[in-house]
Structure formats: structure tokens, C-alpha cells
Design a protein that fits this description.
By secondary structure, the protein is mainly α. It has one domain. Helix 1 runs antiparallel to helix 2 and helix 1 runs antiparallel to helix 3.
Length: about 120
């Protein structure tokens, strides 16, 4: 009976140690994730403003030279690049929204693995 108690005690110790380490890592990940989400969210209005500004410049340049100047073409390319950046940012924001659940699942998986390990003797 003493051996079973010792084994259970070692498993519980390993589990608690693993949980403490996981909690510390999760706190760091959570802080980093908040920073990333805030930064990415801050890009949305900036990209929108740049896109609107370039659209107005493009319209003005196109009105000046209906024949298709190099400036108008360059601005079209910049506008296309900004559109691609805006789309990529939207996809990034969507992907980041699923991270908290992914982190939680990873922590639970780590706890299950720690519980199933045989402690060293």
C-alpha cells in the first residue's frame, strides 16, 4: 500500500509541477497574444486611411491625364498592394481570434501528458 501511495504522490507532484510551469507559460503567452492582437487591430484604421488617401490621389491623377500616366499606374499598383495588405490583415485577425482556444487546448493536452508520465525514481 505504501508503494501505491508513493507512486500517487509522485504523480500528483509531477502534475502540480507541470501545471505551475504551464500556468507560467500561459501567462506569458496570454500577455504576448494581447499585445499582438492590439497591434494588429491598430493596423486596420491605418490601412483604411492609407487606402482612402491613395484612392483619392489615383482619382485626381487619372482625371488629369485620362491617357494613363505612369503616376496613375504606379498608384493603382500601390492601391492593389494596400488592398492585399488589408485582406491579409483581416485574415490574420481572424486567425488570432482562435488562439485563446488553441492555447487552452495545448495546456490541457500538456496536463494530460504530465498526468500520464511515470515519475523518475
Amino acid at each position: 500500500m505504501n508503494e501505491a501511495t508513493d507512486l500517487l504522490s509522485r504523480k500528483l507532484d509531477a502534475l502540480l509541477t507541470g501545471q505551475a510551469e504551464a500556468a507560467t507559460r500561459l501567462d506569458g503567452i496570454e500577455d504576448a497574444l494581447r499585445s499582438v492582437v492590439a497591434t494588429v487591430a491598430g493596423l486596420v484604421p491605418i490601412l483604411g486611411t492609407h487606402r482612402e488617401m491613395l484612392q483619392r490621389i489615383l482619382e485626381a491623377a487619372a482625371a488629369e491625364d485620362a491617357g494613363g500616366s505612369e503616376l496613375a499606374e504606379a498608384l493603382r499598383q500601390v492601391e492593389a498592394a494596400l488592398t492585399a495588405m488589408t485582406d491579409a490583415q483581416a485574415r490574420t485577425t481572424q486567425a488570432l481570434s482562435g488562439l485563446p482556444e488553441a492555447v487552452e487546448e495545448a495546456a490541457a493536452r500538456g496536463a494530460r501528458q504530465a498526468m500520464s508520465r511515470e515519475p523518475a525514481r
